[in-house]
Amino acid sequence: MLYILSEAVNLARTGHIYLTSRNRKALCDVPPKLYDHWAQTAHHEFPGIPQDAFFYLRATDALLTFFECVRRSNRPCALPSKAADSVWHAWLSWSSESLDAFCERHYGQRIPHVEANAMAGGMELPMAMCLVTARTMDKLDLAGPKVPRLFATDRKLRMPGGYHYYVHKHRMVYALVNKYRRAGAATWVSPGTDPDFLLAAGLIAQDDYDRWLARCMASAGSNAAASRSHGDGGSCGGTAGLVGGDAGSDGGCGDSGGDSGCGDSGGGCGSSCGGGCGGGGGGD
Looking at the record, which segments are called Disordered (predicted)? Predict the structure, then answer.
């Protein structure tokens, strides 16, 4: 009985994605057989990954959003979701020809899958490019700190080994999701998501940065006494790197999807970039 109820709920949730996704046209064109291949193979490369249809469809929708970021930016972008990457890997192993044809049909180009260590110039600029484009698509302030839907994918799906992005002291930070599907204790700022980096890279205007800084300083002023007593340097946070804390701090994630709960903290460790691979882009 519980299994039947669970399947009914999953069916309703997948139907909702098809009805509400901004990628609806492309999503309906994804080969139906891809799900079976993903369900049979993804767990070998991504241990602990769920295999239900809702997880797959949500991850696929995120991958299509990433492809749209590549199309709009016409620059290399970094993919901030292991869940979405699991679908990308499955599609490549099932039929790279099908994937290439799909991308040409919907995004006007083939989008190559590039591992992080093979990204020319590193992951920081591709991550920044993806973030600014995703915020533009979600109609968010470009300097932040809100987490766009694409970057919230792994947190919402509780993807094992994924990136749990949330807002801490007016900056977007992340923790890794452990094998228990909980956010690890170590918290990081990806260099490519920091407002100072976005400004220096020319991806946001000075006005965008100034609005973020004004909110940041206003919050710092209202919490000055607490900051001095705790010696934490104010409410704006620090520069990129390990920032400590847990993934449930500051009372919410501040993402654009409305799911503000950050989940429980747990064991785990950080990493250096907050994204595992990248792709696409015409460049200069």
Answer: 264-284
